[in-house]
Write a structure and sequence with these properties.
heterodimer; A: 429 residues; alpha+beta; Jelly Rolls; Immunoglobulin-like; 5-stranded antiparallel sheet; B: 256 residues; mainly alpha; particulate methane monooxygenase, chain B; two-stranded antiparallel ribbon; 64% helix; disordered N terminus
Chain lengths: 429, 256
């Protein structure tokens, strides 16, 4: 067997080889980057069908405790949600739900989350027709301006996105820390915990694999081996010497696995399996029953005019007169300017502060039943694509009406039902 | 690098010298290696993302049951196919190690670029599963036994059994206990809770539900054995898949 030292020839090949590898890695980068993990789409809420958004979860009293904060500052995202009684049959019921945040990546981290009094790092169950109060504590992580939504994911249903607010974060993510105290007492920074070791461990094995591959490649390469196998001399390629190298390598690999494994068990003698499970029996908001009863009597939707007209029979069973002040659906708020004399603090894109009017603005007296026509009209109806109602497979709307007494008490009533689209401007009921 | 001319290949008149001929062989070898590596990286990465997906992406999906079952089975496909190609054509005992390394390089680029670089998920949430020692195992079993049947049976079983122990050295630290608002969690659960994923709600994690629980707390060995058995079957299937992919077909001149 005549072997040649090929240093001189390898020299001319080296430059080309380096370029090839750079090209190869660039291709690898492109291939792995294309099916990228898509960050949270900031406004995906509009892409969902209108009837699904209006008739699943009705968000109200949503508050962001701060809209400007520094890295490491905390804020609270609080509010209430009504689970619509006429939950559409097209969506799975919220028997398994998860309280989430709609944001472009973990720019704020979720430090804790509650529904009612119950902490919900886990999945929980909601009942149709009930109202729940939630609180999410968020800690600013990355500088920038982000749209932050409350969101509830419903199993087999998908994400249902609530109202969003622009949050400005100042500072630098480099300063962010996430201290966590372990049960055994010590405190760690979860933001960076274990990362260095993870790199070392992974790159140790990847280096070993590289060495193994290059060893076999450098001895006889690919083409020469191919010729040899073709010539029926395949057996000579893997002889006793090669097998011995293999056996030694395998023994070393298995020994390393054993040593790493034992070291991990020695360093972390007490570990738990991951925890999961459904939280049931979370109590809804405990409030006296609404004293205003509303019966839907039909409605229409004028497509060019962006106008929803609802006929309703309203009965006031309370002790004070009431006036209709607000209609809310899919996170949008349509206010009656006669009741809301000052503009509440709420994201502008969802707040139609003059979007609601009633046929008869006199207060409904205690004990009185009145047929009302409610007119909801605003461009936001169109912008937020609720006007697509007319093209949905189930053209039923839904939402909450809020009535107010002179003493400032609020009564809410659910309303919803089929509406007839009118495609001509100026059409009436 | 050394090469030999013992195969008696036609180093004939086309080349000015033997040196030039061998230089060509070496350059072609490198080109082949780069292309093979890139192709395996790209195709295995897509295959693995589609089939192992969330179980490989997130620390809080790396459980004791689904993860050690799904991941080795899915990874076995390309390992078997690559062995079939590298072993039968070249007697190179590097098939499984090569695909596993290619996959991990692809995954690390993806996790570092996309998950961390673009979306700011910390690496301790998104690092991939370690697979390299399994590649060594499979390649060396094939090399020493020289038999794909033995490799399928012995190699396949070991492939499934090795998976959890080789990942545990990194995983153990994240299975320490902590508590948040009175709820017991592992650090892995907590990372998943802290770092918000809009499209990955808690309920899609299948953390040990179902009948394997009847084996008490020894969930991992049961899952690993099961995974090993399925890996054997996958090995048979994908060895032949690899064989089929590495054939060269010529069109006879008369047929054109
Ligand atoms: Cu948004």
């Amino acid at each position: 067997m005549k072997s040649l030292n090929l240093q001189s020839m390898a020299k001319c090949a080296t430059a080309r080889v380096v370029r090839l590898w750079i090209l190869g890695l660039a291709v690898a980068g492109a291939l792995t980057t294309l099916p990228a993990a898509t960050p949270a789409a900031a406004h995906g809420e509009r892409s969902q069908q209108a009837f699904l958004r209006m008739r699943t979860l009705n968000w109200y009293d949503v508050k962001w405790s701060k809209t400007e904060l520094n890295v490491n500052d905390e804020m609270e995202l609080t509010g209430k949600v009504h689970v619509f009684s006429g939950w559409p049959q097209a969506v799975a019921r919220p028997g398994e739900s998860f309280l989430n945040v709609g944001e472009p990546g973990p720019v704020l981290i979720r430090k804790s989350a509650f529904v009612g009094e119950v902490p919900v790092p886990r999945t929980f169950s909601m009942d149709v027709g009930e109202d729940y109060e939630y609180k999410i504590v968020l800690k600013a992580r990355r500088q920038g301006r982000y749209h932050v939504h409350v969101q509830i994911n419903v199993k087999d249903g998908g994400p249902i996105v609530g109202p969003g607010q622009w949050i400005t974060i100042k500072g630098d993510m480099k300063d962010f820390t996430n201290p966590v105290t372990l049960l055994e007492g010590s405190t760690i920074d979860l933001e960076t915990y274990g990362i260095t070791w993870t790199y070392i461990y992974h790159f140790f094995w990847m280096a070993a694999a590289t060495a193994w591959i290059l060893y076999w490649f450098m001895t006889k390469g690919i083409i020469v081996r191919y010729w040899q196998v073709k010539a029926g001399k395949g057996r000579e390629l893997i002889g006793q010497d090669e097998k011995r190298i293999g056996a030694i390598t395998l023994a070393a690999v298995l020994l390393a696995v054993l040593v790493f494994y034992a070291a991990a068990n020695r360093e972390f003698p007490r570990t738990l399996p991951m925890q999961a499970g459904l939280l049931t029996g979370i109590s809804p908001i405990n409030e006296p029953r609404s004293t205003v009863a509303v019966q839907f009597k039909g409605g229409s939707y004028t497509v060019p005019g962006r106008e929803l007209r609802i006929r309703a029979k309203v009965t006031n069973n309370g002790k004070e007169p009431v006036r209709l002040g607000e209609f809310t659906a899919a996170g949008l708020r349509f206010l009656n300017p006669e009741v809301f004399t000052t503009r509440p603090d709420f994201p502008d894109y969802l707040l139609a502060d003059r979007g609601l009017s009633v046929s008869d603005s006199n207060p409904i007296a205690p004990g009185e039943t009145r047929d009302l026509e409610v007119i909801i009209q605003d461009a936001r109806f169109d912008i937020e694509r609720l006007s697509d109602l007319a093209y949905d497979t189930d053209s039923q709307f839904g939402g909450l009406l809020f009535f107010f007494t002179p003493s400032g008490e609020r009564q809410r009533a659910e309303i919803g039902g089929p509406v007839i689209p009118k495609f001509q401007a100026g059409a009436t009921l | 690098m050394s090469a030999s001319t013992e195969t008696g290949s036609p180093a004939g008149k086309t080349w000015k010298s033997k040196e030039e001929f061998l230089g060509c062989v070496i350059l072609t070898d490198w080109i082949l290696l780069v292309i093979l590596f890139a192709v395996l990286l790209g195709s295995f990465h897509i295959h693995y993302m589609l089939l192992a997906g969330d179980w490989d992406f997130w620390i809080d999906f790396k459980d004791r049951r689904m993860w050690p079952t799904v991941t080795p089975i899915v990874a076995m496909c390309f390992a078997a196919a690559a062995q079939s190609f590298f072993w039968t054509r070249f007697r190179l005992p590097i098939g499984a190690t090569t695909v596993v390394l290619a996959l991990l390089i692809g995954e690390w680029i993806n996790r570092y670029d996309n998950f961390w670089g673009w979306t700011f998920f910390p690496i301790n949430l998104v690092f991939p599963s370690a697979l390299v020692p399994m590649g060594f195992w499979l390649d060396i079993v094939l090399m020493i036994s020289g038999s794909w049947l033995v490799t399928a049976l012995l190699g396949g079983l070991g492939w499934g059994l090795l998976f959890y122990p080789i990942n545990w050295p990194v995983l153990a630290q994240y299975h320490q206990a902590t508590e948040i608002d009175g709820v017991l969690l592992t650090l892995a659960d907590l990372i998943g809770f802290n770092y918000v994923r809009t499209g990955t709600p808690e309920y899609i994690r299948m953390v040990e539900r179902g009948t394997l629980r009847t084996f008490g707390k020894d969930v991992v060995p049961v899952a690993a054995f099961f995974s090993g058995f399925i890996s054997m079957l996958v090995y048979f299937l994908w060895w032949n898949m690899g064989k089929w992919f590495s054939t060269t077909k010529y069109i006879e001149i008369e047929e054109v």
